[in-house]
Amino acid sequence: MNQDVVSFVLRFIREESDGQPARWRGVIKHVQSDHTADFARFSDALAFMQEHVNETIRQAFAGDEPLSPERIFAETARLWGEMAPRYTDIMLQSMELMLEQGRRMGETMAESLARWSASAQQTSPDQQAQLISIIERLTAQVEVLSAKVDDLEERLRGG
Amino acid sequence: MSDSLRVQTLGLFRVWIDGEPLPPVVWKREKAQRLFQFLITIRLNDSHQVMPKERIVAELWPSLDEKRADRDFKVALNALNDALQPDRSARSLSTYISRSGLAYGLDPDADIVIDAAEFRDGLKRAARLEADDPDAAIEVYRAALDLYQGDYLPDALYEDWSSLERERLHTLYLSGAMRLATLLVPRGGLQEAIQLCQSVLSLDRYWEEAYRIMMISHALRGNRPLALRVYEQCRQTLRDGLDLEPMSATTALYRAIARGDPPEALLPR
Questions:
Q1: Distance between CA atoms of B24 and B12, rounded to whole angstroms?
Q2: Would you call B167 an interface residue with chain A, using a CB distance cutoff of 8 Å?
Q3: Could you give the angle at the alpha carbon of A115 between the alpha carbons of A111 and A116, nearest 5°?
Q4: Which H helix or E strand runs over B187?
């Protein structure tokens, strides 16, 4: 599982001067890179945060090659592969959530398959084999989830 | 009774058992050291003596699934126990680690001294002494500030879980150093006050109070030109970095020094 975390430490410093209103300034640090910036206006701190969040999003899709349809599909498939087992846990805890997510998963799978079929024609045999393997794993996962949905639905009806 | 364990977390990470330094090779696994550092951080955070395993795992192995993270936690815990107490009985925890159900922490009854805790406690004690016994407060401030050899756990700089404690200790150092400098100036400890201000400015170049105490110290030492140059440096730094002008107190001090006001009028309150 990949997990991108972007966190910041903000320090505000209040400085007093005789008879004058206190003045605030601050320091912001991006924890994962240790980059820091000083600011006297909070909008500068927000801009700093935005810049680092954007950079993380860019890096999530960065690579040696431009963003191709296959790459988008592969990333989508990978995310589904990671998310599916987690869905199992969540669904066991919440029937309502499970039904909804099962529906969404089916829809997204259909979308992913449609994208794959469009892009697969442009990929090499090796890439196609890899993608087919991912799809097969996902299909198996969907079958497991579908069985759980059926089982829980049945239990609900029985209850 | 366990041997005494001493841990340096400020500036460097080092461990001594009964006065003997623990060689880095004992850690075998990086995660064993990280786990120990994490448990130290929990100890420093007054609200936690132990933390549930699932939360420890979520912080230290965020990218692993539950099964693998659980396995890696056990391996790291075992390596940590081996590092701290290699001759303990098999499969037992070391006397420094406590377990309460599925929660883990440093054993509150074990003899463990952490420099960051001593630093923090020293500053608290010094602050309490200031009003009644400022000379004693100065000594306690000095001893506490000497412990701050640098950032908290610098080898865990990019870890989320260490950043809060690092920031807390960093700001304690800045404010403690300024308190000590303020106490030193009227007692003639001008050179030491200047060094403390330089140390603060090396960590935060916009700390205006540090510029003011440096200006006063130079002026009291009879070096008015240097005091005025410090003001210029302050003004330039604020302008370049934050587009701000010095505060009125700083400018008033500059004018007083430029006019040649008597030194006692410059003393900080």
A1: 12
A2: yes
A3: 115
A4: none
> Could you tell me the residue ranges of all domains in chain A?
8-60, 69-158
Find the closest chain B residue to A6 by CA distance: B160
Instruction: List, for residues B83-135, the tens digit of each pLDDT value.
Output: 998 888 777 778 899 998 999 999 988 999 999 999 999 999 999 999 999 99
- DSSP type of residue A29: E
CA torsion through residues B43, B45, B50, B55, sign: negative
Q: What is the residue type of B96?
A: Y
> Which pLDDT tens digit goes with each residue over B135-192?
999 999 999 999 999 999 999 988 889 998 999 999 999 999 999 999 999 999 999 9
Tokens 């420890």 belong to residue: B56
Partner residue facing B158 (CB), from A2, A17, A31: A31
Q: What domains does chain B contain, in order, with CATH numbers?
A: 5-113 (1.10.10.10), 188-269 (1.25.40.10)
Regarding pTM above 0.90, the answer is no
Identify residues of A whose CB sits under 8 angstroms from chain B CBs.
Answer: 1-3, 5, 7, 9, 11, 13, 15-20, 23, 25, 27, 29, 31-34, 38-40, 85
The residue of chain A nearest to residue B251, with distances taken between CA atoms, is: A17
